[in-house]
Model the fold of this input.
Amino acid sequence: MTVAMNDLDSINPATREFLQATHHNYINGHWHPAASGKTLAVQDPATGETVAHVADSDAADVNVAVAAARQAFESHSWRTMKPALRERLLHRLADLMEANTAVLAELESIDNGKSAAIAGAVDIACAIDCVRFMAGMPSKLNGSTLKPSAPFLPDTELFAWANHVPIGVVGAIIPWNFPTLLFCWKLAPALAAGCSIVIKPAEETPLTALFMAQLIEEAGFPAGIVNVITGYGHTAGAAISSHPGIDKVTFTGSTEVGRLILQAATGNLKKVTLELGGKSPAIVMPDADLDIAIPGAASGIFFNHGQVCTAGSRLYVHRSIFDKVVDGVADIARNMKVGPGLDPTTELGPLVSRTQQERVCAYIAAGMEGGAEILAGGTIPDSSGFFVNPTVFVNTSHDMSIVREEIFGPVLVAMPFDDIEEVVGQANDTRFGLAASIWSRDISLVHKLAPRLRAGTVWVNCHNVIDAALPFGGFKESGWGRENGMDAVKAFTETQTTVIAL
Ligand code: NAI
Ligand code: MG
Done:
């Protein structure tokens, strides 16, 4: 099968104008090339062609950005800005994102490969929602009054309170699978808490972060509060995670790099939040409504081409309905329209990079060598882009790499089970613990099963439902801390206790 090329002639003039512009880092309210003068090329995954160049930054650029963020954090204009004004700035940013949804969605598509239509309806819509949710926080971030007894001060009356004060300068390192959304997951709660921030998008997908920087400038945030630096992980990323001037680093990406971030953070003991990999189980019980469960399981793995940390990549189906469910999912896989992201009829776009395509293909080959059977896909279409056809494996076992490791591509492994004890054991037999889904109509079974799954989020009759209001993060090697929800803002604060001897 041959896949059509992306039609760059069809894009919005504003998208084209942005692509053709020269791209610099956004530091202290100004646009600067990397100090070294180096740039890195940005590819369209649907064609493999270079569409832009951005700064290839290193420690020198990070140093300047951190100094700017520190100065801005300490500045009167930000420290004493009234909560309502901080909220208004965040809402202004959300308004600008709304007005520029089409451009953000097209840039995301050209940068990452995903469908522009889906990016607009999901990624950008959820990113705006996140900014608005967090915009409501500054005026609600209250502390508490405390009642100390201090028996060693029998004659002194005490009054005390605890307050949530901003943690300081934040370093954010984000991946390429949801570039705009994850940019906002880091940015919005950090700004709501009163921090300043240095953000580095992934080297594969820097464009929307730079476009967001333009909107941030237009919204009128004080200079230095938000700094966006593009570059590679081992240079710019490592400089952020080890920087003594950064108080907290928040990272989303691979478990392997999560460990490096943690090690780098030991220098100044900066606080760390990590959102890492997953190998999430989807469990279909014998009583499930299969009209919902079959398409649900398929979209659980194939949404965003499987490049989702919560992808339902392990499907456990009760033996009595195994063939029906797995054939249904394989049928959906075979019929998905694989194509470039700018084509509105595309259901599955290319993976983000040649490296990712090769990685996923190596897993598929390992699965076949290990004796697993392919029901759908397992091939790549004829294209210069980084496509992989949606793939369904059966006859798999828990010692295979395709069952144990995060593939981060459109590859599902399906296994039958006979009873609850067996499926609980299988679902939890992983070093990850990000998410899980249960497909059942038995409410009491759901209540008993959900808490036994060692996962940060358990979905019932749905998968990948992620929202600004819902705490999100991982058990086990899937990470540290939670994003979204009320607590996401507190994760960018320190609790400060004040005690007065009256
Ligand atoms: P990665 O973890 O290397 O990249 C994520 C971010 O970390 C990027 O901004 C990158 O520049 C940065 N980074 C890389 N090395 C760094 C270092 N030494 N210090 C500081 N920052 C560094 O992920 P990669 O290599 O793009 O993908 C590999 C695998 O990671 C994927 O196949 C997938 O399994 C997993 N992954 C998981 C994600 C998630 O959402 N949890 C997102 C992206 C990848
Ligand atoms: Mg990497």
Notes: The CA atoms of residues 93 and 219 lie 5 Å apart. The mean pLDDT is 97.
